[in-house]
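tool=predict chain=A
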Amino acid sequence: MPALLAGMALLLFSCRPQLPLTTPHKTAEKPFLITKAESYEKLGQTEAALSTYERYLSEHPGGAYTALSMHRLARLYSRQQSYEKAAEIYRRLLASTPQYPAAAEVRYELSRVLYLNGDYQTSQKELLQWLSMYPSHGLRPQVLLLLGEDSRALADLPEAFTRYLQAEDAFQGDAESMEQARAKALEAINGADAAQLERMRRSTTERNYLEKIQYRMAELYFQGHDLEKAADLARVLAAESHDPKTAEDAKNLLARIESARRVKPYLIGCVLPLSGPYSLYGQEVLNGMQLALGIFAPSEPGAPFELVIRDSGADPKEALLGLEQLVHDERVLAIIGPLASKTASAVAARAQELQIPIITLTQKEGITDLGDWVFRNMSTPRQEVETLITKAFGGLGLRRFAVLYPDNPYGRTLSELFWEQVNLNGGEVSVMESYRPGQTDFSEQILKLGGVAALKTRSGADKNTRPTLHFEAVFIPDNAQSVAMITPQLVYHNISGVQLLGTSLWQSPQLISLAADYIQGSVFPAGFFPADPHPRTQAFVSSYQQTFMKAPDLLAATGYDTIMLLSEVLRQRNVQNRDDLRRALLEVRDFDGVTGKTAFRQNGEVDKAPFLLTIQGDRAVLLP
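tool=predict ok
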């Protein structure tokens, strides 16, 4: 905070015109060194100007221009942010020349460099002395403003508020400066607690400020869950405020208060596809959620809330209807879901309008850009590629890559993300080739990568022909079935001994059973790894298998983690309304779930690195 305030003050004062310096009343010609130093200043050659003024002071310690040189030196050092040096020279000047014509300016500038150097108490003391010495000086408005900055830096917001009001009054006739002081007074109000606001209220009679203080108190009551007091203050402001913005803010606050009164903090809504083409996926998520709720295991502590579910099917309209029912009829605290891109986009956009936290479980790019009420708890293709590339460059030492991808939306998206990340890391994608979805013979594409035709290598003369490859790794963003067909053909066309890289679609027992010999040492990301030795993961996997008679997948693990994360937040924090929960989610740090450590960035995006797996023998293992 001190550094931030100092930066703000530096910006503030750097915009103020330089105070004129009073020159000595001498008829003698100006010394050469002074003329030379002034020329350097005009040319912006600060170091040369500093050394020239210093030389003058050294050669003429009692000269007519000594005080002027010291003043200019201090200003130059201040401009260089050498605040301690500047303060030392200002003090020497005041001690050696107490009758200096610009003494008021020097004392003010001394206070300013003390403030910029973080010595707020000394700066404040100097400014109070300045006010007693020069009560009618033209610098009085700037002094009052700087006093406000000192008080604010010292966390005395009521005193800062008073000084800002005094500065605003002193700046009469200077509309821009008055607005600046007014803005700072409002900032002080918005940063104050209840006790500080009460002190501020007693220090002003201006209606506009009193209303701002009253509105801030209403906000604090709301945040403290005292809805009745908040509503009483907001209702008066909405009806009687002469400021249209304050009245509108008060009306919005009343709406939030009424919404908070209607919310049931023990209810969470869920919108999932439990019928239609995506029902298998929705059911997996629901299985994980039910396990986390303790429905199937009485020994589990369970969540501190109930789950209310609506079926979205595959229809955005059905999903929106379910959302409206959960918000208005059930009055839930938050929403989980949906999964599919179209339904997730529609529901998330409406949740943003209704100002209800929604934790989506979709991989759709940019879903959290819809607003600050939208969160995501699902690793995205971008996060997968970023994690993979970080390992490729760091742990594997790779720099040159080939990309072989299916010409479908998934393949194009992943190959573009891969190319982008390779370039950002200073690597090279030397060749990219696409193939048709459903294709089984990849000879044409593999030859373009640099492979050698099989017939050629089997002729007597060219039996030992090996291709010259311009890459060290091949990235294949496709499913396990396609990869199981592609990798043997790479070897068949003499592309071997290169690192194979994939996506989370490679995480399949089918890939190992069909192509284990060809994918040894390959590396690919995974959002969930059932064989993770972490005790929490193994407990989840065991419980899930016993309950549903099958192994859990990423969707089940994500549903489980989402419930467990919400449970932890609601147990640890005093959440009584939707805004409480939204802010609490943003403060989640390293929630240790079965899908890895989870946090939310300030834009609502999940911050969770996927696991990286490699193939060893007949199984996938975590990459060291």
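The two ends are 41 Å apart (CA to CA). Confidence is low (pLDDT under 50) at residues 1-18.
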